[in-house]
Design a protein that fits this description.
87 residues, alpha+beta, 4 strands
Length: 87
């Protein structure tokens, strides 16, 4: 099960917000939407994705940040509680 959060940010804050979300380590997917609600980019995050693997994602986020003045970042997070397992 996953939860979602939304952050409304200006174009200049997009990269820093995405970096912070990735550093928290519990995000499964990040979606960046325009002011009108159109999806601009959507990317999944894997548990082991660090360093060079995130460079293309951050490059894409930087390009989007240069084009938009305001956007919404939707974050799908993994629940912190383990799933109930039945034998």
């Amino acid at each position: 099960m996953a939860t979602t959060e939304e952050f409304k940010v200006s174009g200049g804050d997009v990269i820093n917000t995405v970096k912070r979300i990735i550093a928290e380590g519990n995000a499964r997917r990040i979606i960046i939407k325009s002011e009108a609600g159109n999806t601009l980019v959507e990317f999944p995050l894997t548990v082991g994705a660090i360093g060079a693997l995130l460079a293309p994602v951050l490059a894409a986020v930087g390009a989007i940040a240069a084009l938009v003045t305001k956007c919404t970042i939707v974050v799908e997070r993994r629940d912190s509680k383990p799933e109930d397992i039945q034998a």
